[in-house]
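Suppose you are handed a protein chain with no further information: no name, no annotation, nothing but its sequence. What can you learn? This example shows the usual starting point.
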Amino acid sequence: MILKTDKLVKRFGGLIAVNEVSIGVEDSSITLLIGPNGCGKTTFVNAVSGYYKPDGGKVYFMGEDVTGLPLHKMYEKGFVRTFQIPSPFLQLSVLENLLLAARDHPGESFTKHLLRSSWRDYEREIVDRAVQVMKILGLENYWDKEPASLDAGALKLIEIGRALMSGAKMIALDEPIAGVNPKLAHNIFSHIVKLRDEMRITFLIIEHRLDIALKYVDFVYAMHQGRIIASGTPDEIARNEQVRMVYVGG
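A reasonable first move is to predict its three-dimensional structure. Written in structure tokens, the prediction is:
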């Protein structure tokens, strides 16, 4: 299990936004976190990823207690939220955007910069990695295009590609198909599945468009009023009466 929380709590004054939430995310899986607006989903991911410091409970990543680690430390450990990757540089190409997201370039060190062989090998390595990422994401034909010329779905994929280039082992996505049409939405999720299968990347996804998302994920947690109210496979969640009541009322 790559990520685990144990009774995680996050408060804002007298409001308990995340109330003793315990979940587990399997390695190389796609886990979906659902619930109505204001139920605590994004706050939970913020507390897990280091954007917020939890007020109680524990967070474990790759078997290590990382509770309370700040955002940049979680990023260094391989837990990346897509908003941690800057928006694409619109006047650079897709390839250049991916290359800029790579970390630990030896040329940034004065001593290593003098050893041309070290950074030349690294340059070849990250270009090869960027090409691989573009192929998996279906962006290889746009390698020399500026992001500003591409559609919303491609921009979402570039964002994921930049996260991959940073060395992410797990990526948290907040509504990755928001604002895109159904065809592009299915395309984005198809590429997420491909990344899970071919690069063994783990995903934790918040999404409202369940008619699309449930077709692609491995496991689902449903939140309501800061708590987990149900968990299971997509089929189990789709049949869960408590989840139905939360979404449609009654």
